[in-house]
Fold these 3 entries.
Entry 1:
Amino acid sequence: MHYENVSNSNNYKKMTKAEIASEVAKTTGIDKAAVVTVIEQFMTVVKDSLANGENVYLRGFGSFIVKQRAEKTARNISKNTTIVIPAHNIPAFKPANCFKEEVAK
């Protein structure tokens, strides 16, 4: 894959949505604008599904899931107060085993 060498705190490279679309367009021969539309629609479907409490499973890739965080007590150090963070849902991604194995190589 061709992508820009942008460092983050872990020294990993990053790919932008545009770079992913370019790579998919190049390898499939599909117009880049059409690929961007498909990628954006995919992201919308995943977000909407998770917002509705539905997990998204992609065999061989992984699962986009909704995790529930329990209520907890936290401290605001600057004001020296205690606050309660209510229970809430967060999105998460759990890679498939074959995905993890490929990355571990």
Entry 2:
Amino acid sequence: MTSPTTSLSVTTGTDQIALVNVFTVDIERQAELVEALDEATRSIFTKVPGFISANLHVSLDGTRVVNYAQWADKASYSSALQRPEVRRHVEHAAGIARAYDPTLVQVWSVHNSDAAVS
């Protein structure tokens, strides 16, 4: 697992989109799925035009993995899905999960705690 220190800059009113994909997984396969997503992000998606970032989250009960991936625009995301290496990854991840629910979204607003603002 990587734990980089990073900041995220999001601007509302742009073409930027995010994929929020919630995977449902058997508890004993959560680590396998998040490792597959992590590896694909490092080796595939970081090289795809229009990819901005991804954050992987695991549920504390072990039954879900959430992938939040930012893209420059919907066209970049759609184009990525046509790439053979991306399609292979999607099929692999789908084979590990019991179900998944990909949703494309745009940022409406961003809020930070007063303590986070310096």
Entry 3:
Amino acid sequence: MNKVVYVPAFFKPIGKEVTKKVPTGEKKKGFFGGEKDVTQKVTDWQQTGYSDRWVDGERLSVDISHAVSKLNEEGYEVVSVTPLTSGEYDYKWELYKGGVNHGGGGFGYGYGYSYTEGVTIIAKKIA
């Protein structure tokens, strides 16, 4: 008996470094005699969204590892792991008045890309 498991890929989190002042817990005397918190600058990474082109390969590897471990615990042996890809493309062709052979002109472009959408794991029951 075989079992098929799909493991989705996720896009990599993206973000930026943010510097902020954090209190140290200490106090110091202010200019006019009052107490003031002592702070230090700390830089943290802050997530702003997800990439539209980079798959999080590290997370995908961990997710595959968990799926394989679960299959092994259920008495299955992995036969194959197949990546599934998706993609996008666009193109444009435009011809200007007169055509190329009659004093006109034109242009064209095209592009395409693909990314790993996930993997399919096929396993068979160990007798």
